[in-house]
Amino acid sequence: MDDAPADRSSRDAVASANAHADGDRLDPERVRNALRAGAMESARPLARGNQGWVFGLSIDGRRLIVKTPAGGVASAVHRRALAREARAYARLQGLSGFATCHGLFDGRWLVLDELVARPYREVEPDDGFFDGLLQTIRAMHARGVAHGDLKRKSNLLVGDDGRPRIVDLGTAVLRRDRFAPLNHALFRTLAQTDLNAWVKLKYGGYEGIDEADRHLFRPTWPERIARRFRRR
Length: 232
What we know:
This protein has 232 residues and is of the alpha+beta class.
């Protein structure tokens, strides 16, 4: 995984980098000041995972999602994961299919737009959805981000336009530009895992795959090992 140091200066850089690259983003100073002033006191808890909490919050009438790291003995690990997720969103900024990220503030508040979409499980996606999802996955990979957990249907939403939305980049791997063979190998593995997940989602498994899509499915070594254990 991308394990660059997540000190305060780098976290603030994530929060303010490209602040005006997307005119739809909130002013980072406005968001930071609101959070420090206690805006989270009115936040509504939405979910709790292994890495932390997810809250709903409004700032200046904007409906937002705020992710915070879990505490405890693994707090530093969770903060590091949140910083990596913020860097993943920074790479994907402006890419259709992902929430606008307003930044990571004080190393503990990752602020995203709330997506207007329905859970994947509640709809019956058509071929157009899967075509769009494959395009989004390839565009994500082109920006050096592999999701790694797209088989989990809760990480997929369907927008009002019928197009896919991908959420939760907590397990993402970011490809480094410099010479980093282990990182590059891990990125390739998770990128292939994303494509395998697309095949499984579209076909409900790995049987009956159309000829045009067969080249997309290549089991990774972790998947092959997991399959052997399941067969025992």
